[in-house]
Amino acid sequence: MKKPVELIFELSKPGRKAYSLPACDVPEASEKIPEKFARKADARLPEVFEVDVVRHFTRLSQLNYAVDIGFYPLGSCTMKYNPKVNEVVSRLPGFLRIHPYQPEEMVQGALKLIYDLEKMLCEITGMERATLQPAAGAHGELTGLMIIKTALEHRGEGHRNKIIIPDSAHGTNPASASMVGYEVVEVKSDERGNVDVEDLKKLMSGEVAGIMLTNPNTLGLFEERIDEISKIIHDAGGLLYYDGANLNANLGKARPGDMGFDVVHLNLHKTFSTPHGGGGPGSGPIAVTKELVPFLPAPLVEYDGNRYYLNYDRPSSIGRVRSFYGNFNVMIKAYAYILTMGPEGLREVAECSVLSANYLMKRLRDYFDLPYDRWCKHEFVISGNRQKKSKGVTTLDMVKRLIDYGFHPPAVYFPLIVPEAMMVEPTETESLETLDAFAESLIAIAKEAEENPQLVKESPKTTPVTRLDEVTAAKRPIVKWEFES
Questions:
Q1: What residue segments make up the domains of the chain, in order of their start?
Q2: Which of these CATH numbers, 3.30.565.10, 3.40.640.10, 3.40.50.620, 2.70.70.10, describes 84-340?
Q3: Would the pLDDT of 30 be above 90?
Q4: Torsions phi, psi of 263, nearest 5?
Q5: Which residues are within 8 A (CB) of 240 and not within 5 positions of it... i.e. 6 or more apart?
Q6: How far is Cα 348 from Cα 273, in angstroms, rounded to an integer?
Q7: Is 321 left (phi over 0), alpha (psi -120 to 50) or beta?
Q8: Closest to 160 measured CA to CA, from 210, 229, 110
Q9: Each residue of 287-314: pLDDT tens digit?
């Protein structure tokens, strides 16, 4: 294993300073730090020159990978390039310097933005009203399921305690359902990667509250029998929840509301281009049908013809799920993105993302296993099972090798129903040259796996740290410097 970048403490030499201050020329403060808070000895800080400090942190910054540096093919994450105009707009003083406790008459512009953005999202999804409170996708899932649960209780059907989830679903789906108190029931996928409708029929009962679906699903495939699924669930008295993680494939082309969904969540920080990753912030709005509007979290932004205001008078609401009204800065960027793109632009986003995914899938299909041989949407899943069986080279080995070629790895080992899965989402923002370079790198690695498997198993070779013990790193992370005793 290579040695990581040298830590700032390791650069320390006694007597070195990064600053030079003049002698104090004003009287000392009459009130000093209370004795119990005062240091008894100097702090153990690194002693370095200014140039050492600057170079150290600059080197660290250059080790970070970001969408502004290179291609992020993470399946199911929609890591698209973020137009910088959105960042500029979000920093306009009228947005940046307001405070949520200001009187409504002083923040009419912000309330109008929230109101208009809600209308746009409802038009895009085919729903009646939406809340922008949820802070991210999983938080949106939780909120949507709470709405479903409350609606069923108001209907006198609180006994419904089961949520059906496909075996290819995002892991957050069953986690969110469990947190709301539902029992998770798994429905199988068929040979084409769709929900197995016959298996679904067997699972239906008076205890089913609904189903959680992603469409296109996590295999990157459109549910070909979505109308039939919708009828089965609704006829049994259940509701349909739409996980919007893959909405990028549908923009301007197909609306969840038209497919029969009752609750739709979106990821503004994915589909609508606001920065994604790094711990947030995100935004996971929930949109609902007319029947479910009374249960949306309070407040909602309303307009009476003269002014915008926050409406807290919502007796059937599930209550607030986020402080104030959500992550406003993220909403600004999504609003700017939608206005910039317009209806035609949003349709082109979907078209180009689907075109890019199918192009890459076509280029790679002869070198990896393709578990579902059909047109994909915005992403696709291939498998490294061929390489594992032939030379013992795993998908993890190959994506680690991909780092040496200058690319961030795609999502791996997901969905769980595909062994040695590699999930690739190119998005609409990458050029043909980038897609070709990525494909050629994976093809070269597939050949290396056959001709020099040990090279691939020992990769990456070009990073400060090669193979980590990822389990130990996750369970017992070292997050601070500790002096050797």
A1: 84-340
A2: 3.40.640.10
A3: no
A4: -130, 135
A5: 210, 211, 213, 229, 230, 233, 234, 260, 261, 262, 263
A6: 14
A7: alpha
A8: 210
A9: 999 999 999 999 999 999 999 999 999 9
Strand, coil or helix: what is 382? strand
Q: What is the mean pLDDT of residues 148-154?
A: 98
Among residues 288, 256, 283, 258, the alpha carbon closest in space to that of 272 is found at 283
In contact, 100 and 322? CB cutoff 8 Å: no
Reported as type and span, the H/E element at residue 380 is: strand 380-383
What is the SS3 assignment for 300?
strand
> In 3D, which of 207, 241, 220 has the Cα closest to residue 75?
220
Note the pLDDT tens digit of each residue in 52-82. 999 998 988 888 888 888 999 999 889 999 8
What's the Cα-to-Cα distance from 22 to each of 19, 25, 50, 262, rounded to whole Å? 10, 8, 17, 68
Q: Which of 107, 121, 129, 162 is nearest to 297 (CA)?
A: 129
Is there a contact between 263 and 126 (Cβ–Cβ < 8 Å)? no
- For 454, other C-beta atoms within 10 Å of its C-beta total 12
Question: 429: which DSSP letter?
Answer: S
pLDDT single digits (tens) 324-347? 889 999 999 999 999 999 999 999
Q: Where are the alpha helices (DSSP H) in 72-220?
A: 84-90, 93-96, 108-125, 137-154, 172-180, 197-203
Are 286 and 295 a contacting pair, CB within 8 Å?
Answer: no
Helical pair 108-125 and 328-364, crossing angle rounded to 10 deg: 30
Length of the chain: 485
Q: What is the pTM (predicted TM-score) of this model?
A: 0.91
Look-up of token digits 């002083």: 106
Tracing tokens 């317009």 back to the chain, one arrives at 342
Rounded alpha-carbon distances, angstroms, from residue 98 to 92, 94, 112, 312, 453 = 10, 7, 14, 21, 58
| Residue with token string 């059907």 | 157
- Token pair 């008078």 in the structure block, residue: 313
